[in-house]
Design a protein that fits this description.
By secondary structure, the chain is of the alpha/beta class. The protein folds into three domains: 170 residues, NAD(P)-binding Rossmann-like Domain (Rossmann fold), CATH 3.40.50; 250 residues, N-(1-d-carboxylethyl)-l-norvaline Dehydrogenase, domain 2 (Orthogonal Bundle), CATH 1.10.1040; 30 residues, 6-Phosphogluconate Dehydrogenase, domain 3 (Single alpha-helices involved in coiled-coils or other helix-helix interfaces, Up-down Bundle), CATH 1.20.5. Helices cover 55% and strands 9% of the residues. The protein has 19 helices and eleven strands. The strands form three sheets. It has a seven-stranded mixed β-sheet with strand order 3-2-1-4-5-6-7, sandwiched between helices. The chain has a two-stranded antiparallel sheet with strand order 8-9. Strands 10-11 form a two-stranded antiparallel ribbon. α1 packs parallel to α2 and α9 packs antiparallel against α10. The longest helix has 34 residues. The N and C termini lie far apart (95 Å).
Length: 471
């Protein structure tokens, strides 16, 4: 009787992301096994693995029994109740010291609950953010693990092997205790929302004010991606404008409905930032604009009822493209600044122990928000790990001061033309408010004390004060 083969790494969920990630593991010399209720998806894994040691099953008991101890089991399934259901099924078969890894977009508070629950069962758990989409999962994502350091060490070599590489450095690092991995991924997605909205607004301006056609837009974003805006999102934006419609005539971009959907991670970032009292206005604006976009029927009705007369000035296209590049560069910096400030605060509040230099380092490759800017962000936190805000770094302060006028000009043109620029406008307002040593919120404090006796502080005396305000 031959000895049963045992496998190095297991995956629950063999959809596109799970299957691609597992095949990536196999590419790096590890034997793999997958579990899925769908027999066709299970068979597809083995077929795509070719001659690499791989197995797929629809039976949970067989799946767990086929793994080497301590077992390393990753879940790439939709966030929510499905994760809890699978964990319960796994607990019937796993043993103490086995590692369960949740690689989905789970809400960080769910991860914290699961960590405590599995700790009682003596099963180690990791909440791991994975970014890069299906292609990234297959050929090298950015990976953000958090939870048990002991558990991470058990899977470290595998995760380093499959991650994206920048200058031969793996785009994976232990993020910190508890739900740090899922929290970092959540904020990553918030920054992603902001950058996507900024690019959408730049498109609207270049098309509606500048009159650029799709080929000119393709060339403009292609040019941006060769310079200081070099990033994955700018790269794919350029490609989108060159894509022909495969179901009809013309270009595909013109046939796509202007209703942006969302899975909730941007909203979570915005909500949690409010809970902590950390301003992330560009991320907030991105979430808001997706909400407004969903009101398609109302917007079509309002287009007729709320029609106003606006001016669309004749502009030099080349000058507008140059100015837009500078404006985008400024706004991208503020989006990263807001996300990193939130991470720094959350790390203190929740005891994550985040290393922001490491966070920026692993975002340089594989993930959706990868950009050349991230190397400078990494350097900024390497120089000063306690930097209160990225905008305070000398390099970024110079970038902001050198490009703010371009954004002011873009916003003015958009206002005159009636083009919405909520993300651009909040990016500039964030910069202007942060650098203002005397904001008019003294009035807000006076109002709160006037109507609710909430007290106020003074600039000339210590302590809190209340006044009897006369009508």
């Amino acid at each position: 009787m031959s000895k049963k083969q045992l496998y190095d790494f297991g995956m629950v969920g063999l959809g596109v992301m799970g299957r691609n990630f597992l095949l990536n593991v196999a590419d790096h010399g590890y034997s793999i096994i997958g579990l899925d209720n769908n027999q066709e998806q299970a068979e597809a894994l083995v077929e795509e693995a070719g001659d690499k040691p791989a197995k797929a099953t629809t039976d949970m008991k067989d799946f767990v029994a086929s793994l080497k101890k301590p077992r390393k089991i990753m879940l790439l399934v939709p966030a929510g109740k499905v994760v809890d259901m699978i964990i319960e099924d796994l607990l019937k078969h796993v043993e103490p010291n086995d590692v369960i890894i949740d690689g989905g977009n789970s809400f960080f508070e769910d991860t914290e609950r699961r960590l405590e629950y599995l700790k009682e069962k003596k099963v180690t758990f990791l909440g791991v953010g994975v970014s890069g989409g299906a292609k990234g999962a297959r050929f090298g994502p950015s990976i953000m693990p958090g939870g048990s350091k002991q558990a991470y060490n058990k899977v470290k070599k595998i995760l380093e092997a499959v991650s994206a590489k920048v200058n031969d450095e793996p785009c994976v690092a232990y993020m910190g205790k508890g739900s740090a991995g899922n929290y970092v991924k959540m904020v990553h997605n918030g920054i992603e929302y902001a950058m996507m909205q900024l690019l959408a607004e730049s498109y609207g301006i270049l098309k509606n004010i500048g009159g650029l056609n799709n080929e000119e837009l393709h060339q403009a974003y292609k040019k941006y991606n060769r310079g200081k805006l070099k990033s994955f999102l700018v790269e794919i934006t350029a490609e989108i404008f060159a894509q022909k419609d495969d179901l009809g005539k013309g270009m595909l971009i013109d046939k796509i409905l202007d209703k942006a959907k969302q899975k909730g991670t941007g909203k979570w970032t915005s909500q949690n930032a409010m809970d902590f009292g950390i301003p992330v206005p560009t991320i907030d604006a991105a979430v808001t604009m997706r909400g407004i976009s969903s009101l398609k029927s109302e917007r079509l009705a309002a287009e007729k009822i709320l029609k106003v007369r606006v001016s669309k000035p004749k502009l030099d296209k080349n000058k507008l493209v140059k100015e837009m590049g500078d404006a985008l560069f400024f706004a991208f910096i503020t989006a990263y600044s807001q996300g990193m400030a939130l991470l720094a605060n959350a790390s203190k509040e929740k005891g994550f122990g985040l290393d922001l230099e490491a966070t920026a380092r692993i975002w340089r490759g594989g993930c959706i928000i990868r950009a050349s800017l991230l190397e400078d962000i990494r350097k900024a936190y390497s120089t000063d790990a306690d930097l209160p805000n990225l905008m305070m770094d000398k390099t970024f302060a110079k970038h902001l001061k050198g490009n703010h006028n371009a954004l002011r000009s873009i916003i003015k043109k958009s206002i005159d033309a009636g083009i919405p620029t909520l993300a651009f406008s909040t990016s500039l307002a964030y910069f202007d408010a942060y650098r203002d040593g005397r904001l008019p919120l003294n009035l807000t404090q006076a109002q709160r004390d006037h109507f609710g006796s909430h007290t106020y502080e003074r600039v000339d005396k210590d302590g809190t004060f209340h006044s009897s305000w006369s009508l």
